[in-house]
């Protein structure tokens, strides 16, 4: 399971403190190889391949210590579409991917970009 906290620096300090404690409990349990962690009177199943992401404007030292810093980059949609098409057996996947991306861009211009995915990634351009 993955979770992403967006603009976490706007969360009030008391809530951040509680979140930090809960994340530390989860992280410690994963590092110890446990399959569950006890949180708020409930046993929660853990998955070793889980991840937690957060976006923030300013660094909050106490909280960011729980995270590994990563960079976000704009995805190469053409490459993603080309790989998907190749995996489905399309021979001219490169040319078809280029045309699909042109269609996608045209639809985005005509229809708009009022979707959660586009709104969240628009700052990556």
TrEMBL record:
Tell me where on the tree of life, at the top rank, the source sits.
Eukaryota
Q: Name one GO cellular component term.
A: dynein complex
Q: Which InterPro entries match?
A: AAA_6, DHC, Dynein_AAA1S, P-loop_NTPase
For this entry, list what GO says about its biological process.
Answer: microtubule-based movement
Instruction: Give residue ranges for domain Dynein heavy chain hydrolytic ATP-binding dynein motor region.
Output: 1-111
Extract the GO molecular function terms from the UniProt entry.
Answer: ATP binding; dynein intermediate chain binding; dynein light intermediate chain binding
Q: Which PANTHER family match?
A: DYNEIN HEAVY CHAIN 1, AXONEMAL-LIKE PROTEIN, LOW QUALITY PROTEIN: DYNEIN BETA CHAIN, FLAGELLAR OUTER ARM-LIKE
Q: What is this protein called?
A: Dynein heavy chain hydrolytic ATP-binding dynein motor region domain-containing protein
